[in-house]
Amino acid sequence: MSKHFETNAIRISPSKSDQKEHSSAIYLTSSFTFDSAEEARATFADETEGNIYSRYANPNSSDLIEKLCAAELTEAGIATASGMAAMFGSIASLLQQGDHIIASRSLFGSTHQLLTRVFPKWGITSTYGDISDYKNWESLIQPNTKMLFLETPSNPGLEIIDLEWAGKFAKANNLILVVDNCFATPYIQQPSKWGADLVTHSATKYIDGQGRVLGGLILGKSELIKDVQFFTRHTGPAISPFNAWVLSKSMETLAVRMERHCDSAMKIASYFEGNQHLEGVKYPFLPSHPQYEVAKKQMRLGGGILTLTLKNGIERTKRFIDSLEMISRTANLGDSRSIATHPASTTHSKLSPEERARVGITDGLVRISVGLEHPEDIINDIDRALDLSK
Ligand SMILES: *Cc1c(COP(=O)(O)O)cnc(C)c1O
């Protein structure tokens, strides 16, 4: 009988070693041995299942992939050393010189650099679409367009793309649909249900959940993953067995963590909406969010990230960040500790002012990754810092 999300995330595990360990073992080994020359030949020829070398596969990375496939409802996958290795691999493995990508304009900073500075060197170009005008996307299609690359909710603007629309648009135009599902996690949204061919992750964020290790995943249909696997096996972005083990352990608590992250984020967003020091609060499950209806349709909960826009610009915003007592000043997100980030001067500082304006990153925008501390303590810290920074 098929099991629930939480149960799979806990009970899928590699087969026990001779020691009959309850918590899964860590396989810190670069290669695996064969009992005979014939077994080695057959394993290399893919005639029998078996590990060869940890750049190809390792029991810990296979375990992580199996859990994520169950969570994302996908057939197959690859685990990578970081989220960016996953973003890069999902594109580089499937496209070639002369191909074209349509992407949502609000993307993670490094993904934006890939599309605008890295891939053009190899003749792969891209065009950004604006989600406030889906009708216009048809006109972005070129004869060489092969892929639709989306991020929803987006970082840091929290734009929500209608995945039902995206699935239909990709199908009608024969595009490979790739969705970066890092912000939502599979507990909140499963893009494959809406027709995504590949789902990518930075596991560094909520899948780890405690800010310890880097990792990434590319998940999707077997026929596509076969090409991705060829690429990653021979270019080498393999995840370390230790990191894969940490991330697999973290999957066991993803559901309960996300429930609390989202519950607290909703409380905090509601508390600060209308605050005199703020121009606005953005959170997918606040009815004031421009894509509230879409968020309600495709997300189980609103996620753990909200943004505050402070009045009076950059100096005041910096004073606010400096006045926080508990909330960490760092660029990560999806941690058990709450984090405040000023995208304009940090994660998105490499964008030109025009590029930032286009994706809604104003000088007063602060991204709050709501942690697992008591929500009242998070509220009190923000409240106090708003008063002090006046
Ligand atoms: C962090 C992040 C990435 C990159 O992941 P790394 O693990 O830092 O390489 C990609 N996409 C989104 C949405 C992210 O937040």
TrEMBL record:
List the PROSITE patterns hit by this protein, alphabetically.
CYS_MET_METAB_PP
N6-(pyridoxal phosphate)lysine modifications at: K205
* Enzyme class at the top of the EC tree: transferase
Entry keyword set: Amino-acid biosynthesis, Methionine biosynthesis, Pyridoxal phosphate, Transferase
Q: According to its UniProt record, in which pathway does this protein act?
A: Amino-acid biosynthesis; L-methionine biosynthesis via de novo pathway; L-homocysteine from O-succinyl-L-homoserine: step 1/1
* Bias type Polar residues, positions: 335-350
**Regions annotated as coiled coil:** none
An example of a Pfam family matching this protein is Cys_Met_Meta_PP
Entries under Gene3D superfamilies matching the protein: Aspartate Aminotransferase, domain 1, Type I PLP-dependent aspartate aminotransferase-like (Major domain)
- Write down the required cofactor(s): pyridoxal 5'-phosphate
Listed under catalytic activity are:
O-succinyl-L-homoserine + hydrogen sulfide = L-homocysteine + succinate
Task: Specify whether Amino-acid biosynthesis is a keyword of the entry.
Answer: yes
What superkingdom does the record give? Bacteria
Q: Where is this region: Disordered?
A: 335-354
Instruction: List its EC numbers.
Output: 2.5.1.-
Whom does it interact with, and what assembly results?
Homotetramer.
As for family, the record states:
Belongs to the trans-sulfuration enzymes family. MetZ subfamily.
Question: Cross-referenced HAMAP family, in alphabetical order?
Answer: MetZ
Described function: Catalyzes the formation of L-homocysteine from O-succinyl-L-homoserine (OSHS) and hydrogen sulfide.
Question: Which protein are we looking at?
Answer: O-succinylhomoserine sulfhydrylase
